[in-house]
Amino acid sequence: MTRPRPAAGGGVAVLVPADRLVGWVNRFAGRNDGLAGLSATADAVLLTAVDGTTATLAVPFPPMSTHGREPVEALLHHLADLGVLGILLVRAGAHSVGLARAGVVVSSSTERSYVQGRTAAGAGRSSATSAGAATS
Asked: What's the sign of the alpha-carbon dihedral 100, 102, 103, 106?
C-alpha cells in the first residue's frame, strides 16, 4: 500500500495491491462498524460503512463486468484477467517498450539516440560583427 495522499474533492487516496484488497476491505469494515452497502459500476466499487463512511475503489482499465459476482470478487476477477500489459515510454533521445505481468516488468527494450541541444552560440558574434561594421 502506498502512503495516503489527499484526494481531489476531499478524502484520502491510497493504492492497494490486489493481493491485499480483501484484507483492506475487511479492515475498512472493522474500523467503521461494518458494511452497510456494497455496489459496483463498470469503473468503480463503492463501499458504504454503517457509520456513513464511504470508500470508492477505482477499477483500473475499465470497464469491469460483474457477471453476477459480489462487487469485490468481481474487481479481483477483473484484476486477474488483466494479464500482460504493454508499457511505452518516450522522451527526448530515447524510447522504451516493455511488458508487465502482475506488477513486474517481464520484458523490455530501450533505444537511445544522441539529441543535440540548441545553444545560443554564434548569436553574440553576429551582433558584435554588426556593431563593429557600423563603427568602421
From this structure: negative
Instruction: Supply 106's cell numbers.
Output: 517481464
- Lookup result for grid cell 469485490: 72
Instruction: Please state, in angstroms and rounded to a whole number, the distance separating the CA atoms of residues 80 and 63.
Output: 14
Look-up of cell digits 563593429:
132
φ and ψ at residue 30, rounded to 5 degrees: -65, -40
Least confident of 7-16, 27-36, 119-128: 119-128
Q: Are strands 104-112 and 94-101 parallel, antiparallel or unpaired?
A: antiparallel
- Inform me whether the pLDDT recorded for 131 exceeds 60: no
Q: At what angle do helices 71-80 and 21-31 cross, to 10 degrees?
A: 160
Contact (CB, 8 A) for 26 and 37: no
Residue with cell 470508500: 55
Alpha-helix runs per DSSP H in 13-116: 21-31, 71-80
**pLDDT tier at 75 (50, 70, 90 boundaries)?**
very high
For residues 76-102, average pLDDT:
90
pLDDT at residue number 113 = 84
